[in-house]
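User: Quick sanity check before I run a bigger batch. Here is a single chain. Can you write out its predicted 3D structure?
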Amino acid sequence: MHTSNVMMTKYRTGRQKMRDGIEIAYWEAGSGPITILLLHGWACDHTFLLPQLEHFSRSHRVIAVDLRGHGQSDAPDSQYALAEFAEDIHELITALRVSAAVVVGHSMGGQVALELVARHPDDLSAICLIDSVLFPSVSLSGQLRCILPELAGPEYLSVLSDAAGSLFIETDDPARRAELLEKMARTPQHVAVAAFRGHLLDYDFAVAVAACEVPVAYLGATRQLADLDRFRSLCPQLMTGQTLGSGHFSPLEVPRQINSMLDRFFAIAASHTTNAKAFC
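Assistant: Done. Predicted structure follows.
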């Protein structure tokens, strides 16, 4: 299922002005007792989660966002740190009168979800991270630090393509790979560089993870990008799953696997919330 092949029958689009005057674009579909917020990854946009917007809007209210600097949102000179992304989402869901949302974040979007729940715990009822980098190994951290200065240089597009291309595996659809890399190449260089640094090199994962008290799930791909043992040591309620035969862009590559695990996680999270209220 290519992004271009996902047909939304009904959706509402909007733009929300932020505290610094920039505008964030979002897409909304469906209705129901649970609001699901979809956050894409680095150098991506909301279309990287279209299968989830389509699937879950049949029974829930779903909001997919283009983070600042990405997709159709404004791209000012900015820090593009996780704290900035999180505050944008807080403002957006406040304006849209969303309470106790469930956030599904792919890659960097998962880290934004963690930062949001650490800063504004009442905003969210559960979060799911899909193949986000968390507590990277010494080897991976070293590789990421080597990429940054090259990403900031004149060969930006080539470096971005190589870095993102390494996230695919042999079983991924080659046509989809080309399509996604072309979309990612549209990201302005100043956005990609700052966001790369902000979510991979300058962020203290432990603080946000330890502050998270809502139900949490992590859905990894074939190649592991997170230290799940450390994640669980700081967040005992963590639930984990792994896709089969998919690289990093699993929401598009194997949407049925992702959606099935998310359906189960949402049911567990709803049960947790109901039980918690019963004891209040």
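Residues 161 and 182 are 8 Å apart (CA to CA).

User: Great, the batch can go ahead then.
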